[in-house]
Every structure is written in structure tokens, then in C-alpha cells.
Amino acid sequence: MTMKKKKIGFNDIYQDSAGNADDWFSPDAILQTWNTPVKFTGEDTEKAIKGFRPAQLGAIFAIKSHWTVSNDPATVVMPTGTGKTETMIATIISERCRKVLIIVPSKLLREQTVNKCVSLGVLREIGAIPSDILGPSVCLLKKTPSSVDELEAILVDSNILVATVSLLKNFSDKYIDLLVNQCSTIIIDEAHHIAADTWSELKSHFIKAKCLQFTATPFRNDGRKIDGKIIYNFPLAKAQEQNYFQPISFFPIYEFDEDKSDLMVARKAVEILEEDIKNNFPHIVLVRAKSKERARILYEHVYQRNYSKYNPVLIISGIGERNKREYLYKIKSLESRILVCVDMFGEGIDIPNLKIAAIHDKYKSLPITLQFVGRFARTQRGLGDAKVVANIANEEVGEALSELYAQDSDWNELLRIMSSKAIGREISLQELSQGFKGSGVDGIRINQIVPKVSMIAFKTNSKKWKWQNWTKVFDEDKCHYYVNEEKKILVIIEMSEGKVEWTRYKDITNINWQLHILYWNDQKEMFFINSTEKVIANSLAEAVFDNFKRVTGEEVFKCLHGINRLMFATVGLNSAIDGPIRYKMFAGIDISQGLSEAQKENSIKSNLFGVGYNGKGKVSIGCSHRGTIWAKWVETIDYWIDWCNEIAEKILNPDIEIKSKIMCKIPQLEWAT
Questions:
Q1: 364: Cβ–Cβ under 8 A, 6 or more apart, which residues?
Q2: Across the strands, what pairs with 550?
Q3: Cβ distance 652 to 460 under 8 Å?
Q4: How far is the CA of 14 from the CAs of 80, 87, 378, 574, in angstroms?
Q5: CA 139-166-109 angle, 5° bins
Q6: Which of 162, 267, 419, 531 shows a CA-CA span of 20 to 30 A to 633?
Q7: What CA–CA distance (Å, rounded) separates 437 from 483?
Q8: Which residues contact 377 (CB under 8 A, 6 or more apart)?
């Protein structure tokens, strides 16, 4: 592709020079040609018909549908390799977006995006963009303009501006205001890479603009939620079915000696590389390290020392743009066959030949693992299947990824299941959030509230709930509330003031925010209260329901049913005999094995907390004879509701034999009543 360039200050504006090498078109003239309809023909590989992939058509029409009714921020989830950039371009042209700002996380991705926008990617090749449609005038915004006038000149000459979030963070308010006034549409690519606080600050300026977020995984790297309704989700399973992903082969190494582990992983990865080279595959090994220091050690002491004939290169932050470009050229030209890096996404490394992953340090989150594997597994003519090498001894990954690094794991199946489950939860939470109304707290949405997984359970045969009566318990002037009447969920956020212990001066107080949640499952005739102030539970129950009974005593301990290999970390015992010692608490690794007969004798079980397995994975569970049931984590409200429903199933099950279940763990103890 040949491009013509106009320089304004330190920034460049590009147009496609094909057939118009000498003419420079104004953005308005280009926009006029976009009146010609884009041809939305679907791809049919069996009939050799070129066109849009199903994922692209689905996303484009979902965006168009969303924009007919709303300008609210929207998120499009498309697995890596399904054609996000062409989807953006087709949307921009078919919707005749006057001026668009595309925000990307890295400099290399910025350049790749500019090149695709100017050339229109494969849209001309597949016949989607007719020849009389001109490609956009695209600015590669790489430096802060020297003045407002210079930025205005750039905007006057551009249909699309592409910038990194780090550059925009340095823009003055005047620059941002100018972008806000000129740009009708904002697109964020790889949205999960942008920190929540950074994006919230930027987004607050672009309230009137249409905002699209594209991502392969709708979870941020910082663990926060991606803002914007998920209007389209193309499942990873569909991408696999439609052959956008090639099969993934996992080669586990089982080496407990950490000094040998890196050498074993490297040896296996290079062995695979040599076999692929014999089969005429132009594959490259990507070596993944957790830090720059680790990457240097692997580069110098493992790969450069033992496999120098494959010309390993090290690409990490701080090596300079010139060196990075030189090393990437060596990789792309196959002069080098081994690439050592820390963050292939942050560094903007997107090379189809990367088909062998030597994972010396595992990613510990599902979103990054999904994106990482997505880059490796993309289908491209002339390339073989993806291979992953990792040491599965000395396991350091969390529960969410432990199955991936098992001896006989099938990555193709597991990644499909994990992706579907994780994204499904995000969509479910968004759907739940949409049903809430109320005063709320500015800036806090329901899907941002993450209570401790804890509750007090109640039984009721009431046919109605009087949720409005919460004002009889709380001071309405100091509270905000959310209510979902269909799902029967009430959330109250209460501001409370308390005394400061170190002074008698009354005008200084501690201000705390308390959270109270009530959920009523009318089908099971139970409701549950989660509160940061447990003493309020009965009062709230009395206000909302005409009759109820708190679940206490033996019934509470039914929550332990179905948890195997249960080890108690804490056990609280009440004395059955009046005396100076009324209560004893024991803590350790497995209390049931450590209690002596004397300690068990004349004791009544009061509260328990332990860890075990429920068939889905590792879980924690705690319960008190007074009625509180809890787990040791915080989660979203929809998770808490599902958890309450699971506990309710146990409490209401008359077939669960509590006593025998627990007596085998702590013999000779009677239930507290």
C-alpha cells in the first residue's frame, strides 16, 4: 500500500494514494463519497464468496441498532482474530461518522490502526467498499500539538484521529475541549487495557459523543469493570467452530527444580520450533516473562546462551523505539525465530507467525490468558497449529486457571468454557443492573457494588414485600437506594457518623458508608439480608415483611452439605456448663484433627469456618448458630444472589442429614440452639 502524507507540526496525516497520487482530498469531500452504500455481503467459504465474517456483520448491525435508540457507551466483544478493525472502519463509513477519535493502548497498535484505516484493511478486497468511496484522511497523533491552532488544523484535515491514551492524558483542558467539540464518535480499541480511572476521566469530557468500546475480553487488566452496555458478544466457541482459531496443543513440563525449569521449557519450545521448520512452517517462539528483569535473565542465560543460532531478540519497555523496530523487523523477516518479552500486548506485538508460546511465567488472570492465546491461535493460510509450553509443577496460578495447567488439559475446550462463563457473567450482571431504579449515588452503578459474600437468612410466607418501608429504619436524608422490583432486590447505601475516639470536640466525626442489601426469593419463600451492620437485619426484616422467622440453630449448618474434604480453620465452642469460661475459639489448619477429647467434652458448637471443594472448585464457608452464613471473599450482587439461592436449596432440603455430616468431623459435639 502506498500512502500520501501531510505533516502538521510533529504529527502526520495520511491518505491512500492508490489512483490519486497527486490529489489531496478534504475530509468533507471524502465524507460526501460515503453516501455510496457499503455492501454488507456475508462470507461463504464453500461457495468462494468473499464478504464480511459473521462476527463482523453481527457487530456492525448491533452497533447500528444501538445507535437508533441510544448514544450511551456500548461495548462490542469480539475474540482476537475475528476482524475488529475492519468492523470499526465499516461502521465509520456506513454511518458517515463526521469525525472520529480512535484511542489505542500502545504506539505500535496506533500505527497498525492508522495503516488499516488508510488502506481500509481487506474491505476493498472483499468488495464491501466500492471504488467510488474514498478512504478516510487519518491522523497519526504521536506528539502533543504545539498550540490550539495546530490541533485545530489537524482536525480540519482529518476524518479519523488515532492516539494513545497516554498522549491524551497529557492534553490540556483546551485541547480536550477542542476534541470534544469536533469529534462526534469515540472508539476505544483493546478497551480492557485502559485503566478505569484514566478512562473515566477521559469519558467525562465526551458525554455527547457516541462511544464504542471494542475488546476480546470485557474485563479490565486492573480488575475493574469496563463501562458501557455489552451490545454484542461473539462467543469464543463460535470463533473456534468457524475456524477463526486453529487448534491449540498444550505441552506440559513437569519439573520441580526451579533452576532446571526454564531450561526444560526452552528446550521443549525449541524442539517444537525445529520440527515446525522441518515442516516448512514459518513459526516463531514467543517467550513470556513476568518482568523486565526476568526477561533479561531468560534472554541472556537461556536463549542467547543455548539457542543463539535462532538469533533471539528481547523486546521490553525502555529499549527505545529504534531498537524495537529493528528487532520486530528481524522477527517479521524470520531473521530471528525467538522473541523474549513481558507484555506482548502493551508492546503492540501482533505477528501471525507467533505460533509457539514458551510460558516461563504464567498469566494469572483469565482475561489476559484469553487474549494471549487468541493471538497465537488465529487462523492464517500457510501457518500451522498453535503450541503452548509451560511447567505445571510449582503451580502459582489461581483457581480460575488451574484447569488449564493440568497434565491432560484440552485448551481448546477449556478456553471456550472459561470465556463463555466469564463473559456470560458480565452480561448477566449488566442485565440485572438495568432493572434498578432509585436515588442511587452519582457515579456508582449497581455492577460496581461488590459486597462481602455474607447473609442472614429468613423464612416468610408473605405474598408482598413493602420495600418502601426501608425509610422507617433508616434516615432517608442520609441514604441512597436502588430497587429492582421485578427481581425483588433492595440496596441501601447509608452515610453514618460516629464519634472520634481521640477528642471530645463534637464537631469532628467519623463518616462511614454502610451497605445494606435485601433479596427476596418469593418462590422459595425466603429472603436474605447482607449488611455491614448486622444488628440492623431484624429491624429491616420487620419493616419490609409482615411475618418472618430467622433461620438459626441446626438449620444453619445445612450450608456445609455437599462440601467435600472440608477442613475447619476456626471453630467456636460454647461451654455447656456454667462457669468462668463460657466460650472458646480454636484456629489452625484443620481444627477437627487437633481438638482433644477434653476440649470437645461439654462443649456446644457455636460457629465454624472452613475450606473444601463443592465439585466446581475450591470454596470457603462459615456459619454461626445465630444465623449468619458467609464466605471469605467479595463479589458482585448477581453472584451474591446466586450464592444465596444455593444456600436456600440446602436449608430447605429435608433430606440433608446435618448431624452425621458434621459429627464425623468433630465427634461428640451437639448442635448449638
A1: 396, 397, 398, 401
A2: 458
A3: no
A4: 26, 20, 29, 78
A5: 55
A6: 419
A7: 5
A8: 81, 245, 246, 247, 248, 386
45, exposed or middle or buried, with CB in 10 Å at 0-12, 13-18, 19+? Answer: exposed
Instruction: Report residue 501 as a C-alpha cell.
Output: 475516639
Distance, in Å, from the CA atom of 519 to the CA atom of 460, rounded to the nearest integer, reads 12
* 621-660: pLDDT as tens digits: 999 989 999 998 888 899 999 999 999 999 999 888 765 3
**Cell numbers that stand for 158 in this block:** 482529518
Decide: 67 and 209 in contact? Cβ < 8 Å: no
| Residue found by looking up cell 504464567 in the block | 362
- Which of 144, 140, 142, 132 lies closest to 35 in space, CA to CA? 132
**In terms of Cα–Cα distance, which of 380, 370, 295 is closest to 339?**
295
Q: Hey, what's the cell of 523?
A: 418462590
Q: Which of 351, 361, 352 is nearest to 292 (CA)?
A: 361
- Tell me the CA distances in angstroms from 248 to 373, 488, 508, 577, 617, one per residue in order: 8, 44, 62, 64, 24
Tell me which fold the domain 3-240 belongs to: Rossmann fold (3.40.50)
Length of the chain: 673
CATH superfamily ID and name for 245-413:
P-loop containing nucleotide triphosphate hydrolases (3.40.50.300)
Residue carrying the nine cell digits 482433644: 596
- Judging by DSSP bridges, how do beta strands 479-484 and 549-550 pair with one another? unpaired
Give this prediction's pTM.
0.69
Query: 621-626 long-range CB contacts below 8 Å, 24 or more apart?
Result: 621/559, 621/560, 621/563, 621/566, 622/570, 623/556, 623/557, 623/559, 623/560, 624/556, 624/572, 625/552, 625/553, 625/556, 625/557, 625/671, 625/672, 625/673, 626/552
Instruction: Give 246 or 625, the one with higher predicted confidence.
Output: 625
Give the helix ranges, DSSP H, for 141-221: 148-156, 165-169, 173-182, 196-203
d(CA 116, CA 407): 41
Q: What does the domain layout of the chain look like in residue ranges?
A: 3-240, 245-413, 446-548, 554-663
The DSSP-derived string for 15-48 is EE-TT-SS----HHHHHHHTTSPP--PBPBTTTT
Question: At 304, which helix (H) or strand (E)?
Answer: helix 304-306
How large is the angle between the packed helices 54-69 and 84-94, nearest 10 degrees? 40
The grid coordinates listed for 469 are: 418501608
pLDDT tens column, 181-225: 999 999 998 776 665 566 667 777 888 889 999 987 776 655 566
